[in-house]
Amino acid sequence: MKTLKKTWPFHVMLLPSMIFLLLFSYLPMGGIVMAFQNYKPWLGFTGSEWVGLDNFRYLFERQDSVQVIWNTLIIAVLKLIFNLLVPFVFAILLNEIRRVKLQRTIQTLVYLPHFLSWVILGGILIDLLATDGFANRIISSVFGIQPIFFLGDNDWFRFTVIVSDVWKEFGYNTIIFLAALAGINPALYEAAEMDGATRWKQTIHITIPAIIPIAAVVGTLALGNVLNAGFDQIFNLYNPLVYQKGDIIDTFVYRTAILNGEMGFGTAIGLFKSVISMILILLAYRAAAKWANYRIF
């Protein structure tokens, strides 16, 4: 009680967040029961037919649902790789700029897209990447080839999604690696320079080894979100022409559960994704603790 008397203002500050978490994260979990029912909104939880694991069996029997799982894995894994590799390299290059004002200006410019929503960027990309848009005009005039249907061709859609996501996020993700670079002891560079090491050798033998541990932490923790391929981005960019290669679990759930009314089946897909994501998060956390000595508690 003595401790509570001293800390009650902190508990009061925490209360709105706890209420928000309860209302929007825990109470909706009661809807998981729909995954085991042929749910009908007009019958409710108690009146809908109980079907057990039929929705999960149907998930793996449907050809389109299996394709959606593969699409999600391919897009998410490629995003994970390039959203780790590009900021890693860019942070090293940015760190080599000696003019502080120029370095900060570039850093600010490249992380600004992170703060734009995919609703805005989706509209911009749709206009830029249209067959008669600015990008295709440049391609046609420079290379003399036919316009590319970036957002309507299955062969180009994944490429467009991954490149646009990396462009949007790499500047913001660079901050993590710049923070790691700032923690390197300058004496290491001075000693290397006295030994005759060039800037390239200093980068290879000092800079890169110093930020590999943080890269390992970021990479392993990102594995927990490998099934989150980016609903906002895909939803604002895709169309029926690219469902075969561009449809992911989240957009598939939206169409089946909300638009088509298959709420039981849609809930089963969402539950399947959540369980796999939880397992991956636990494995990623254990990996980060073992290989990078990273622990939250």
Describe the structure.
By secondary structure, this protein is mostly helical. The chain has one domain: MetI-like (MetI-like fold). Helices cover 73% and strands 1% of the residues. The protein has 14 helices and 2 strands, in the order H-E-H-E-H-H-H-H-H-H-H-H-H-H-H-H. It has helices spanning 2-26, 44-47, 54-61, 63-95, 100-111, 118-128, 134-143, 154-182, 186-194, 199-222, 231-237, 243-246, 249-259, 263-291; strands at residues 37-38, 49-50. The chain has a two-stranded antiparallel sheet. Helix 4 packs parallel to helix 8, helix 5 runs antiparallel to helix 8 (154-182) and helix 13 runs antiparallel to helix 14 (263-291). The protein is globular, with a radius of gyration of 24 Å. The relative contact order is 0.13. The mean pLDDT is 83.
